[in-house]
Each structure stands twice: as C-alpha cells, then as structure tokens.
C-alpha cells in the first residue's frame, strides 16, 4: 500500500499537525498497512508530498521513535521496528480511488472520471428478470463463459465492425472492466520483465498494472501531439508492450485518421504488443475514427474498450479485441483468475449495446452543456489556470500557473475537494505541473468544488512552494 493511502484523511485529526501525522502513521502500522521492516520515506520527501514543513515530519518521526515504533540510523533512513528491514514498498504515486474517497461525506469529488447510471440502464435493470426469454435461456446454463457470454461477444464484434474494424466473435474477450483487460495483456506481453512504453501523461490504470509487475516503464510524448518519435523509441528499447490512448487520453484529444494510419503502419508487425485503449471513444463529441487495428493487418495491434465510461462506472465490463489465438490465450488466463465475468452483467450489457447510439447522443448533449458551464466557472474563479478545450471525455487537463500539483492536491483535500495531480499520470512524475479535474459533475457540485479549489490555491500560493500549509 502506498503511504498516502495508508495515512488516509490524516490532517483532519485534532491536535498539532505533527501529532496528527504521527498518530496516523502509528495507526497504519498497527493495522498492518505499513508492515514491520518497511522503510519510510525521507523527511524532506514526505514533507513535499504532503505539502507540510519538514520539521513537522521530523517531530512526527521523533514521536514514533520515542514510542519504539520507528528506528532511525544516520545515513540509513528510518524504518518500522519489529522485523528485518526491507526496502520501502510504497510508490510516489497514490491510488486514485483512495485519494478520491478519503472522506466521501465531506469531499467534493472532481477526481473520479465516471458517470452515474444512465436512465436507459436503470430501465434495463428494472426490466431484467427470468420472464425475459434471453435471460431465462442464460439462467438455464451453468453460467461459465471464461471468454464471455457468446451473445455479448457477437454484439461487440458487430459494433466494432460497424465502426470500421472488421471483427468476429472469436476475436473478442469479455473482461471484468478494462483494468482486468490491461492486467491480462501486460502479464501476457511481459512474462520476463521486459520494458513497457506508455505515453506521458497516460491512464493511471496501466501505471498501476505495470507497477504491480515491477517492469521498467519508459515514457513517450502523447501520440495526439504527433508521436513521430515513438517507432524509433520502440526500436531502441524493444519493449514487450506499448500502451497508447489516441482517443481521449488525459489531454482530451483525438488522433485524426491520417495520423492513425501512419502510426499503425509504423508499429504493425513489431515484436511489441501495441494496445490501443478506446474506453472513452463513446464520449467523443464527434464520432471518433476507428481503432488503430483498422489501419493495419498484423496481429500485434490490440484494442481494449469498456462499457463503464459511457453507461455507468458500476458496470464493470471491458473487452479485448485481438487475434483469435491471443484471445484464446487470454481467456485461459482469465479462467484461472475468475472463471469468467458475471453473466447477468453481460446480459444487461448486450441489451445496452442495442441502444448505445441513443445513450451516446444523450450523454454528449449533457457533457457539452456541462463543459460550457465549467469553462465559465473556471475562467472566473481560477483565471490563472490554462487548458485546451477537450474533444470529449469527462475531464479537463489544467496547467498550474506555478508550483507543483502533488502538494497542491494535498492542500485541496484539506479544503474538501479531490482532484488528480498530473504526476500520478506519468511513469516518472513528469507532468506534475498539471491537475486533472472532472467537469462532468452537476453544476451545483462543480461550482462548490471549484470554490474550494480556488480557496486551496490561494492558501497554497500564499504559503509558497517550500513552506508548510496549515489550516
């Protein structure tokens, strides 16, 4: 567990700041979230990450040493007592789920990029029952479909074919969310710890997967900014996996058809498995071009998608489109993990694909209205921040006028609003001069969130980059 995950909403505790921090660390150690022998971050590093003064961390560590919980040696750092010392297992990146849910009752969440269930999904749930012939037929089977419900695989294949990527059902694997799709593909492509290449910034999901596999990760410029150097980088480091988001990545841009063809042709036939994540394609304001695999034949171009972004975050259904042999291999690995994605969810998803055009039209109309509202609110409340209007999706990529996003987001959390520091969307924290803000919230929620964000920014800038920020 990352140390900021383990600390939770530590600054909301009573008492002096150093006492709050030491109490949160002691509680995390007692729970086992920070195991015995774990090396804690250096004082300066933790202070920067938490947007507090170094002396606060020094006093907190001193309290833990007095209690016999922490041991420190000059030149060797500090670690939790009670077991053989190990290297720290924490990463500089914080889990976004934990960051967004530290105190859900008091937090205005502008970090989680997901929508509530659409009206049509609610209607479909209400209609779902054994009286439906299709559902009844599924319930008459044992319910084990490791590669996915045949009807859903066929519907996804038909959908992809209509979008310009000819596909048959045997080329589609249904997964429990796109995160499982990425996990299966990464484990398949990187069995011996080969390096991976991702864009900077990129999806936090793929970084979590690659961090879990402990493989080297190299960053590349966003392909929506040109991506002309990507083939040369692939030739130089020979990665096992290349993960790309040419359709609505963090920057909110979409790679055009001509550039897609050039990129697909350049990467086709390489040893690397090239993963094209189209999970947000349904949220494009204008119809997005076909996936990269539509522009080149070789089987190393793989497409990953999801129903969660368009329909509902709680509908944990994703899919992989690749060669039949790759899908069969991934299905075997998935069967070992969970025997298959829940079948009733897949029955519901099959219905939703039949009305996806209607759902998308309603979503896009709503998102356009909310983007226009958010633009006005941000321009008035945070005029120094800069961003490029997105071509779809749920988020804005805001450039900070000064300072660093990670400590600023810590301050924002103390003011009761969650946003995503850009550093967690980079393999090396190189985009920590930006924050990702979800604009697709009801206007009254967004307004309150920006009010708190503006107050946090005023406090952060008043304190200065290297000074503690107290409430």
Automatic annotation (TrEMBL):
<keyword id="KW-0032">Aminotransferase</keyword>
<dbReference type="InterPro" id="IPR015422">
    <property type="entry name" value="PyrdxlP-dep_Trfase_small"/>
</dbReference>
<protein>
    <submittedName>
        <fullName>PLP-dependent aminotransferase family protein</fullName>
    </submittedName>
</protein>
<keyword id="KW-0808">Transferase</keyword>
<dbReference type="GO" id="GO:0008483">
    <property type="term" value="F:transaminase activity"/>
</dbReference>
<dbReference type="InterPro" id="IPR036390">
    <property type="entry name" value="WH_DNA-bd_sf"/>
</dbReference>
<keyword id="KW-0804">Transcription</keyword>
<keyword id="KW-0045">Antibiotic biosynthesis</keyword>
<dbReference type="InterPro" id="IPR004839">
    <property type="entry name" value="Aminotransferase_I/II_large"/>
</dbReference>
<comment type="similarity">
    <text>In the C-terminal section; belongs to the class-I pyridoxal-phosphate-dependent aminotransferase family.</text>
</comment>
<feature type="domain" description="HTH gntR-type">
    <location>
        <begin position="15"/>
        <end position="83"/>
    </location>
</feature>
<dbReference type="Pfam" id="PF00155">
    <property type="entry name" value="Aminotran_1_2"/>
</dbReference>
<dbReference type="InterPro" id="IPR015424">
    <property type="entry name" value="PyrdxlP-dep_Trfase"/>
</dbReference>
<dbReference type="InterPro" id="IPR000524">
    <property type="entry name" value="Tscrpt_reg_HTH_GntR"/>
</dbReference>
<dbReference type="Pfam" id="PF00392">
    <property type="entry name" value="GntR"/>
</dbReference>
<dbReference type="InterPro" id="IPR051446">
    <property type="entry name" value="HTH_trans_reg/aminotransferase"/>
</dbReference>
<keyword id="KW-0663">Pyridoxal phosphate</keyword>
<dbReference type="InterPro" id="IPR036388">
    <property type="entry name" value="WH-like_DNA-bd_sf"/>
</dbReference>
<keyword id="KW-0238">DNA-binding</keyword>
<dbReference type="InterPro" id="IPR015421">
    <property type="entry name" value="PyrdxlP-dep_Trfase_major"/>
</dbReference>
<keyword id="KW-0805">Transcription regulation</keyword>
């Amino acid at each position: 567990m990352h140390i900021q995950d383990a600390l939770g909403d530590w600054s909301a505790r009573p008492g002096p700041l150093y006492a709050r921090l030491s109490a949160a660390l002691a509680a995390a150690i007692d729970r086992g979230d920070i195991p015995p022998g774990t090396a804690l971050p250096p004082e300066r590093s933790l202070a920067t990450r938490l947007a507090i003064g170094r002396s606060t961390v020094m006093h907190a560590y001193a309290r833990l040493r007095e209690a016999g919980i922490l041991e420190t040696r000059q030149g060797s750092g500090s670690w939790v007592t009670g077991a053989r010392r190990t290297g720290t297992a924490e990463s500089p990146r914080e889990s976004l789920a934990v960051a967004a849910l530290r105190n859900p009752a008091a937090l205005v969440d502008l970090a989680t990029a997901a929508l509530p269930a659409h009206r049509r999904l609610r209607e479909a749930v209400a209609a779902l029952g054994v009286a439906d012939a299709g559902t009844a037929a599924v319930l008459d089977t044992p319910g084990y479909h490791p590669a996915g419900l045949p009807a859903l695989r066929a519907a996804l294949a038909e959908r992809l074919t209509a979008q310009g990527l000819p596909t048959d059902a045997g080329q589609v694997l249904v997964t429990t969310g796109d995160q499982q799709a990425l996990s299966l593909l990464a484990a398949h492509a990187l069995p011996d710890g080969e390096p991976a290449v991702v864009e900077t910034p990129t999806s936090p999901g793929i970084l979590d997967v690659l961090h879990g596999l402990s493989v080297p990760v190299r960053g590349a410029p966003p392909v929506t900014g040109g991506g002309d150097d990507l083939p040369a980088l692939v030739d130089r480091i020979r990665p096992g996996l290349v993960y790309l988001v040419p359709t609505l990545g963090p920057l909110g841009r979409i790679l055009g058809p001509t550039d897609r063809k050039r990129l697909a042709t350049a990467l086709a036939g390489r040893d690397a498995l090239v993963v094209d994540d189209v999970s947000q394609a349904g949220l494009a304001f204008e119809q997005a071009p076909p996936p990269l695999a539509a522009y080149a034949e070789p089987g190393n171009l793989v497409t990953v998608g999801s129903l969660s972004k368009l329909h509902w975050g709680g509908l944990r259904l994703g899919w992989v489109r690749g060669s039949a042999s790759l899908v069969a291999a991934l299905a075997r690995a998935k069967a070992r993990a969970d025997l298959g994605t829940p079948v009733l969810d897949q029955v519901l998803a099959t219905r939703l694909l039949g009305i996806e055009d209607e759902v998308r039209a309603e979503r896009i109309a709503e998102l356009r209205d909310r983007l226009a509202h958010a633009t006005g609110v941000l321009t008035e409340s945070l005029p120094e921040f800069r961003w490029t209007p997105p071509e779809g999706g749920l988020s804005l990529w805001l450039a900070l006028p000064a300072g660093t996003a990670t400590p600023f987001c810590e301050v924002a959390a103390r003011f009761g609003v969650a946003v995503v520091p850009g550093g967690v969307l980079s393999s090396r924290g190189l985009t920590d001069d930006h924050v990702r803000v979800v604009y697709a919230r009801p206007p009254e929620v967004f307004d309150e969130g920006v009010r708190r964000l503006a107050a946090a920014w005023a406090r952060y800038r008043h304190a200065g980059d290297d000074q503690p920020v107290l409430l």
